[in-house]
Write a structure and sequence with these properties.
With about 200 residues, this protein is α/β, with parallel strands linked by helices. It contains 8 helices and 6 strands. It has a single domain, classed as 3-Layer(aba) Sandwich (Pyruvate-ferredoxin Oxidoreductase, domain 3), CATH 3.40.920. The chain has a 6-stranded mixed sheet, sandwiched between helices. About 40% of the residues are buried.
């Protein structure tokens, strides 16, 4: 299926507990605040046991399906390195890859039935540009909580998109509980500053 004009496709991939769904809600709010048609889809693969969680967000003037076709994602935001590798076929050739520099061994690796690929980032850099890697946990910890790593990644994504920052800030306020908003604003700012560095 051919990509509709003026539709932005964002694929968020991670494992259970990393906050991909919350990040998807922030993105959906960003699209709605611009008056865009937004479709969101979530796939949970044994998420509570560390399985893959995939959130697809599509926004544009008119969006007919919530699902991104292989080779059509404009942005791949990976909350863990192996998930970036696993879902790379979804990205268009000129798409942007944003990766949290975190390794979470899946069950086959933990039991010795498989090996965690050692060269994920170089392999992705050979296929796509830009590929941006950031220590999101560390940056989030400096902002006040490592749990805000997902919002660090949203800050990096925001830096790569042409959406006013005021809309992102309003989306954060709409989705994040008030008592956690200050930490998440700092985490978002850390992501913004990291993009391209």
């Amino acid at each position: 299926m051919k990509k509709m004009p003026n539709v932005t496709n964002i694929l968020l991939v991670g494992v259970g507990g990393q906050g991909t769904i919350l990040a998807g809600k922030i993105l959906a709010q960003v699209g709605l605040a611009q008056g865009l048609d937004v479709k969101m889809s979530e796939i949970h693969g044994m998420a509570q046991r560390g399985g893959s969680v995939v959130t697809q967000v599509r926004m544009g003037e008119q969006v007919f399906s919530p699902l991104i076709e292989p080779g059509e994602a404009d942005f791949l935001v990976a909350f863990e390195k192996l998930e970036a590798y696993r879902w790379a076929q979804m990205l268009r050739p000129a798409g942007t890859v944003i990766i949290n520099d975190q390794r979470i061994d899946p069950l086959p690796v933990l039991v010795g039935a498989a090996v965690y690929p050692p060269d994920i980032v170089p392999a992705l850099k050979a296929r796509f540009s830009p590929v941006l890697l950031a220590p999101a946990q560390t940056l989030a910890g400096r902002a006040g909580s490592e749990k805000a790593a997902n919002v660090v990644l949203m800050g990096m994504l925001a830096a790569g998109m042409t959406i006013p920052l005021t809309i992102w800030q309003e989306a954060l306020a709409a989705v994040i509980p008030p008592k956690l908003l200050a930490i998440n604003r700092r985490a978002f700012a850390a992501g913004l500053e990291t993009f391209g560095n």
